[in-house]
Amino acid sequence: MNLVVKGYKKINGIKMYYEIYGSGKPLVLIHGGAGSIRFDFKEIIPRLENQFQLIGIDLQNHGMTEHRNIPETFEQDAKDVAALLKEINIGKASFWGFSNGGNTVMQIAHLFS
């Protein structure tokens, strides 16, 4: 895997962890419940990093992102993802989420409809 960028951004009161691989059209990877970017997409990243700019995000209370004392909801996760993408200057992207990540992606679509 050719990691281009990794880091944290302060988003809605927590430090959110993200990684960026490759170049091309942005494809945001949203993990499932109890997962993380490195765990859930470790087989996918090497296969797609030559075709897309992959942006993996650990959601609140997952992976390397901080914990927060509010209920986890798909709507909050969607707001966090949208704010993080704005912070790293991604204005338009495709999304790949599965399980809980799929629900988060549907909430992102709802936010922007």
TrEMBL record:
Q: Which UniProt keywords apply?
A: Hydrolase
- Name of the protein: Alpha/beta hydrolase
AB hydrolase-1 domain ranges (all copies): 25-111
Entry GO MF terms: hydrolase activity
Return the InterPro entries for the record: AB_hydrolase_1 (IPR000073), AB_hydrolase_fold (IPR029058)
Give the source's domain of life in one word: Bacteria
